Amino acid sequence: MHASQPVPPLPCFDPSWALFLDVDGTLIEFARRPDEIEPRPELIETLGMLQRTFPLALISGRRISDLDRLFAPLRLPAAGQHGAERRSADGQINLAPVPQDVLIPARTTLGDWMRGRPGVVLEDKGLSMAVHYRGAPEREREASEVLEKAARPLGGMYEVRSGKMVAELRPSGYDKGRAIEAFMGEVPFMERVPVFVGDDATDEEGFKVVNRMGGLSIKVGEEPTVACWRLASVSEVLEWLSRCVKSMTPTWPGG
């Protein structure tokens, strides 16, 4: 879907849904640094109420520990680091099977590159690494090049992917679509209609999976997308979720 195409109205809320939500740029506005974002006060309450209406999971590039901090006291099912770590509804943690020390050389390469480059932030997530250049957008090409350099010695175990003002080194074969597929194979998500809301290029794999399953794919923003519906901004997402809370009552055993 291109921005110029007419956007159909979002369907009415349905108790058969399973809800999957990206975080940065979808539920929370971007900040200059990744550690500076803060959810709006009403968001925690809204997510808690949604969890009593639908099975719900967060699908994010952030670590699960970061998501728990942002949305405390909630402890939601979540895919972190684009699915390289995933916490199911029963609390079980699944991690990408990569050697614990595999990123040590990459950390050295990226740490050396960071020196003397103000405005660039290196985020070490344990299983993946991200270079944020929102404070220095002229570094976009450099960021991708240094991550490609860091990836080459890893023998295909890692790949470089780009998002909004960020380039990431992450385990190969893991993405948000695969994470949604994994949730949809588990209770309480299975046999429901998947609904995924996201804003970035890294969410497109999730949209493709949801489209294939006959669900609802919702893009936040105006960039071209395979999603079938759009919301314009974080504010519109939060308003939409608030309307959902007001229109629904708990209808599943987890509620």
Largest beta-sheet characterization: 8 strands, mixed
Strand order of the largest sheet: 5-4-3-2-1-10-11-12
Q: Quick one: how many beta strands?
A: 12
Order of helices and strands: EHEHEEEHEEHEEHEHEEH
Q: What is the count of DSSP helices, taking H or I runs of 4+ residues?
A: 7
* Share in β-strands: 15-25%
CATH topology of the largest domain: Rossmann fold
Describe the fold and architecture.
29% of the residues lie in helices and 20% in strands. α1 crosses α7, α3 packs antiparallel against α4 and α5 packs parallel to α6. α1 links the parallel β1 and β2. The model has no long low-confidence stretch (mean pLDDT 91). It has 255 residues and is an alpha/beta fold.
What is the gist of this entry?
The chain is an alpha/beta fold and 255 residues long. 29% of the residues lie in helices and 20% in strands.
What is the secondary structure topology, with strand pairs?
Blueprint: E1 17-21, H1 41-51, E2 56-59, H2 64-70, E3 78-80, E4 85-87, E5 93-95, H3 104-114, E6 121-124, E7 129-132, H4 140-151, E8 158-163, E9 166-171, H5 176-184, E10 193-198, H6 204-212, E11 216-220, E12 229-231, H7 234-247
Helix pairs in contact: 1-7, 3-4, 5-6
